[in-house]
Amino acid sequence: MEPNKQADREETEIDLGGLLRLFREKIKQIVVVFLLFAILAGVASRFLIAPTYEATSKIYIVSASSENGVNMSDLQVGATLTADYKQLLLSRPVLESVMTNQKPNVSDVDELKSMIQIDNPQGTRILNITVTSTNPAESAKIANELAKMAEEWLPKMMSSDPPYVAEEAVVPEKKAAPSNSKNAILGGMVALVIYLVIQTVRYIRDDTVQNAEEFERYFGIVPLAAIPKEDVVDYRDKGKVKGKPSKGSAPKGGMRPVSAKSAPRPANSASRKSEQKKGTRQV
Hints:
3 domains, elongated, Alpha-Beta Plaits, two-stranded antiparallel sheet, alpha+beta, four-stranded antiparallel β-sheet, 9 helices
């Protein structure tokens, strides 16, 4: 059992090494894929996605039981009222009043509700009313209208002291989303991961022997010679040589294939005699 485990572990390490070598050989393609899709994602984020803007108003909820000020029980009541205000501000009557007064570019109450986010920071009696819209002025108007409803309409319904508007929303000058740089990096990373997965799957499914080292590892036999791919004749293609080198240059294999027509002919006896005579005269 132990030798088998050791062999499997060595084979896994060799496969990982081969995979890393494959990635190293394709480093140029990897960089091109990342840059290309990062640029495409950035352009799409810049021109195809509408920018959105956020405006936030803040209200402070506290109930004073006496004219002397706020005591500990009042603070506890205010904490309870904060959760109630958070739910009531998203109720249908409040949202319908906002649509009637501000006439936002929405089709129904549910669409307006999806634009509103109300947060209560932990340990406080403050509500942050944030409105997200493609129109910066509209987002500020809706946030201020909700704060006004919380100050005027909700106390009457709840028979409690009105909250205080701690901060009014202002028209945002910068967009909240999308982030073109983040989308570009995300697009490049997604494309890069997909490309690496494809290359990994192709590497795993490729069971051909790539070099002499793999041949020796799989079969336990040391190869005596290797035929370069450039010099392999493909008889299916009318006897043409793949990767045939140009005249005057040697192929990668180091030897130039010589055909029957280009092979030197043996000299006849007469020519050999004439050469010998010339040689004797020169001497």
